[in-house]
Amino acid sequence: MLHPLPPLAAIRVFEAVARHLSFTKAAEEIGMTQAAVSYQIRVLEERFGGPLFLRLPRQIELTDAGRRLAPAVTEAFAMISEAYAAAKGGVQGTLTISASVTFATMWLARHIGDFQIAHPTIAVRMDASNRYADFSREEADVGIRSGMGQWPGLSAHLLVQGDFAPMLSPRLAASIPVREPSDLLRLPILDADDPWWENWFAAAGTVYPTPVRDRRLGMQAFAASAALAGQGVAILSRALYAMELAEGRLVQPFDLLVQSDMAFYLVYPEARRNVPKIRMFREWILREVGVNLGE
Hints:
Blueprint (H helix, E strand, L loop, with lengths): L7 H13 L2 H8 L3 H15 L4 E3 L4 E3 L1 H25 L4 E7 L1 H18 L3 E7 L13 E6 L6 E7 L2 E5 L2 H4 L21 H9 L16 H9 L5 E4 L4 H5 L11 E2 L3 E7 L6 H13 L7
Parallel strand pairs: 3-4, 3-5
Antiparallel strand pairs: 1-2, 5-10, 6-10, 7-8, 7-9
Helix pairs in contact: 1-2, 1-3, 1-4, 2-3
């Protein structure tokens, strides 16, 4: 038996206000006056039997009930939009991927063409940034984040484990004999204050001296580019630089790999897991990185 539905016009307004946390921005998006938006929210709250928003002096916030309702409403509208586009036989929408710069540069950019070939009706937009996307307020469908896999309200799937080792260009490796881990310390160390360095040398049984902060690049992708150019030794995740190693553009002088608690994960709002474009991308990328879907 179907439960009675709330007024759909009011639900549409609620979704926009919850996403923007602003009556004004929601009104601009929908094409209503702010008074009309306020009226629709009041109608919905009366039907619901309680407040969905907290009205503060200069902002609004979702109540606990509003936070429970908003993800489901957003997912419902997304699924209706996807189904409508599919029924028309046209493009199934744009998939916006927010990915860390390193993963976007060293893995996703190399493989995303395969996804587009497999799903030609989905347009792909990539946003490469180390800033975490706010799924409730931004036009991001999925994200690829570096972390420990625990983000409230988000589903997280492990993509690449964080193993790491020193790597350098063949030309730099040939400049001095590199037989022992300590030999690396005679070469320029990129991002010398990265904690991965101390962890790797400790695992190798070598004391790592106080780092010299003169080659601070701040991002694995930047350190890798400098290493490829022969500017120094970088500490890199082997999984992301397998192609450079296979082609001989980078050298890993020691087999020792150290595991990090940090890894790359595919994330998206739990309530949107069944949106077709998200499901298609999830299945594709997990298959592509060799992860069992487990579903």
